[in-house]
Amino acid sequence: DDWKKIISLYKDAVQYNLGRPFPDDPKEQLWGAITAVFGSWMNDRAITYRKLNDIPEEWGTAVNVQAMVFGNLGETSATGVAFTRDPSNGDPVFYGEYLINAQGEDVVAGIRTPAPISRERADTLGSTDAPLEESMPEVYTQLREVANTLEQHYKDMQDLEFTVEDGRLYMLQTRNGKRTAAAALKIAVDMAREGLVTEEEAVLRLEPSQLDQLLHPTISEDAKRDVIVMGLPASPGAAVGKVVFESEDAWAMAEKGEDVILVRVETSPEDIKGMHASRAIVTARGGMTSHAAVVARGMGRPCVCGAGGLQIDYKAGVFRVMGREIKKGDVVTVDGATGQVMMGAVEMVQPDLSGDFGLLMGWADKARKLKVRANAETPLDTRTAVEFGAEGVGLCRTEHMFFEEERIPEVRAMILADGETGRRAALDKLLPMQRSDFEEIFRILEDRPATIRLLDPPLHEFLPHTDADMEDVAKASGVNVDELRRRAAELHESNPMLGHRGCRLGITYPEIYEMQARAIFEAAVNVSKETGRKPIPEVMIPLVATHKELAILKAVVDEVAQSVFSETGVTLDYLVGTMIELPRAALQAGEIAQSAAFFSFGTNDLTQTTLGISRDDAGRFLKAYEDKGIYEKDPFVTLDQVGVGELVKLAAERGRSTRPGIKLGICGEHGGDPASINFCHVTGLEYVSCSPYRVPIARLAAAHAALKNA
After folding, report:
1. Are 393 and 385 in contact (CB under 8 A)?
2. Suppose 460 and one of 214, 255, 491, 634 were both cysteines; which one would form an S-S bond, judging by CB atoms 3.0 to 4.6 Å apart?
3. Alpha helix (H) ranges present in 19-82?
4. Within 13 A of 683's CA, how many CA atoms are on the CB side?
5. Buried-state track 285-316, b at ≥16 Cβ within 10 A, e below 16
6. How far does Cα 29 stand from its chain's mean position?
7. What does the alpha-carbon distance between residue 79 and residue 429 come to, in Å, rounded to a whole number?
8. Domain residue spans of the chain
9. Distance separating alpha carbons of residues 447 and 536, to the nearest angstrom
10. 355: exposed, middle or buried (C-beta count within 10 Å: 0-12, 13-18, 19+)?
């Protein structure tokens, strides 16, 4: 009787909204459903999903029409979801959940909390519900056999949906299961050990972008945990953030750079944008295969589901549990590995990158052709990069060394000096500081190369800007504050990105580059004497647009090198090259290669100068460009291959035509982007350079590029 009332209400709602009655003709109903699926391709959540997973809009979608079986015909019927291995950690255990007398949507919607399939899993979770293994033992045995057959056939972990109708098992679908990065790593390595896949296939099973989940801290075992509530450990990893209850709030706060934790009664596909913006997800309802759990695992977000003690008041913006009240904006920590939600920010620890991780990365290194270096200019960054497998430093930005507290006064003294004599006096004080920096970097690198970029930014960046800072600097340097303001005004540039910077500084003030070159070569000689190693300095002249600029400054560097070698009696191999970051340099690469032993493509600036877009200001309009399909990706994240990429190809070809053995690499942010790394492989570059924490990502992406393009 209740159903009759509900059906009548639904029919009334259809009549009211569509202006016509619900169709009785089954063909019309079927075509209505098919049309709805096709129409869903362009709804907001589908568009968001495609962007998050790099799925082209033009692919379109498909409709699968199949006969229905019923899991809600009584106690001998059921429905469930199963995985051939644990999608959270990759353990080779049969994993899943089911509900008796239910349809499939009941399992994933989170309306009812399902029971585990196996007794082992039920014991692990402390579940009191009878597992499928006991309630329907024959069905369970058959399901295990089917699952094993499917995994052996597809050679990957399977995500299965099944229904039991009156005691008979029906398989609804199978697909490669979504999994966390940790699970993807373990499954790939285990399947290679089992002989199910080759080492190369195992490497391709782990997406480079997934490594981000393995390279960041987790909760310390010794940390104090003020546990607010416990739920199911649906997706491992840990995160700290501010509590939010609405997906739109999560997105808006994340856009401002805040870390947020999305807390919901349950999630639905409409929440996907907010889930992606969040550091972790917590739901009051739902099981290990609920929408929140599956999506979070695919995104690599920690997730706790079925935290039944939560009472969420969306209107008031609070959740309550065991007499405690947590408001929107309060900081909590989520541990997806244990199912705990804790008050405050809890202590984290660095991940372990040995074991399966080290083994798979070794397989990746055997497969790749591209070398991977790191952008680093501090001992900490250099050491981190080497620990992550970097084969050298591809970009050492020397100006970063100038901003340290004890050095900036000498840099300012050099800038404020009236002439060359004053500048040299200040540079003499900076020399031992720079030399010490390079010594430490060379010690860490041992025999690995280091590409060191000479001073690049305009000088005004080193001067104070506020009146208070001006007065402090004037007192400290003994310069009249008015004179300091005058000098700052002289150095001010309308467009400093295109102004007096890079090699233009070396041309007008060669003594700056002389000091830096001396610091580099003296450091290399000192470390060679101390350790017996052979440091490999690669001196890079930035922002070259003409061959003559490079020829003049290469002569300066060569003269300093020979002077240091003569003074010390030690000779080392070194290279002088340039950063290709201007379109003219790419076009004139054949000429420039006469004096350059290497090209390092500075694709950050090359993108700016080619597209005429400032990276600092582009955020105001780039999203609109992406939404309208003008740029498929943010060109500062993924290389614009048809524009900037064409210049890189042209420069590589022209450089090699002049100097066949010229070394070619890339050191912009694109050096850590998998799609851009594939381009670098295809173009025949020798190495990519990226931030230290992206080195493993670049190593794996380079292996993917080699295997996919073989």
Report:
1. yes
2. 491
3. 26-39, 44-53
4. 31
5. bbbbbbbbbbbbbbbbbbbbbbbeebebeeee
6. 44
7. 76
8. 2-59, 78-179, 216-349, 368-458+493-708
9. 7
10. exposed
Residues 634-663 have pLDDT tens digits of: 898 899 999 999 999 999 999 999 999 999
Instruction: State yes or no: is 291 an active-site residue.
Output: yes
- pLDDT at position 326 over 70: yes
User: Which tokens go with 228?
Assistant: 């607010």
**What are the structure tokens assigned to 383, written together?**
């050491």
pLDDT of residue 44: 87
Here the tokens at position 211 are: 């490594």
For residue 169, the cross-strand partners are: 164
DSSP string, 224-278: ---EEEE-EEEE--EEEEEEE-SHHHHHHHHHTT--EEEEESS--GGGHHHHHHS
Alpha-helix residue ranges (DSSP H) falling in 80-225: 104-108, 119-125, 132-135, 137-154, 181-193, 199-205
In the beta sheet, which residues pair with residue 343? 332
Report the DSSP beta bridge partners of residue 2.
Answer: none
**CATH number belonging to domain 368-458+493-708:** 3.20.20.60
From its phi and psi, is residue 167 left (phi > 0), alpha (psi between -120 and 50) or beta?
A: left
pLDDT tens string 124-151: 888 888 999 999 999 999 999 999 999 9
- Tell me the CATH class for 216-349: alpha beta
The single-letter code of the amino acid at 488 is: A
Contact 515, 427 (CB under 8 A): yes
Catalytic position from the list 303, 305, 396, 667: 667
Using an 8 Å Cβ cutoff, are 581 and 602 in contact? yes
Architecture, CATH, for domain 78-179: 2-Layer Sandwich (3.30)
Amino acid 540 reads M
- Cα 233 to the chain's mean position, in Å? 24
What distance in Å separates the CA atoms of residue 165 and residue 304, rounded to the nearest whole number? 32
Closest CA to 218 of 199, 203, 197, 233: 233
> Which is it for strands 78-83 and 158-165: parallel, antiparallel or unpaired?
antiparallel
Helix (H) / strand (E) containing 479: none
Nearest-angstrom CA–CA distance, 287 and 125:
11
